[in-house]
Amino acid sequence: MILPIYGYGEAVLRKVCDDISQDYPNLQETLSNMYDTMYHACGVGLAAPQVGLPIRIFIVDTTPFADSDEVSKEEAAQLKDFKQTFINAKILKEEGEIWGFNEGCLSIPDVREDVYRHEKITIEYFDEEFNKKTETYDGLIARVIQHEYDHIEGILFTDHLSMLKKKLVGKKLQNIMEGKARPDYRMKFANIKVK
Predict the structure, then answer these.
(1) Where, by residue number, does Fe cation bind (predicted)?
(2) Domains located in the chain, CATH noted
(3) Which residues are catalytic, by number?
């Protein structure tokens, strides 16, 4: 089922999310709905707070990046078919060079800015079958994971911007809160004014 994506200004996007247990109600249905919602919105990642759930789950599928002219053949091979569910994730280490990439977010439509992140991460998490894993990722996969991980920590990519950049996108953010954004997917807006 395709769920509405919560837009900038919704309180749930600022919550540090809670861990869940293996017997979380309807876990597989929740994950299925999140994947349906992400694919419908043409995203490469989606976190539970973006669909109104303050729990530590996010999903990633970097396959669309594999067709980009900006990646090497080697990186394209890694990106193709990389699909993973992260439950109760904890980034253990961020390392390597800090590099910029133009990021966007389904909760913040029509806003894209360069964000600087570490090139390599080590993360501990449970998969959809609640198998515990510790993995190391780099490049675009690491970046997408860091972006989604921020969501479960109550952080948005706009928090990484300079004061000047925040000021420049301020009107767009206000428009999202007021329900004036018109993406081609369902959204729930924070401050739609009723007349």
Answers:
(1) 105, 147, 151
(2) 5-188 (3.90.45.10)
(3) 148
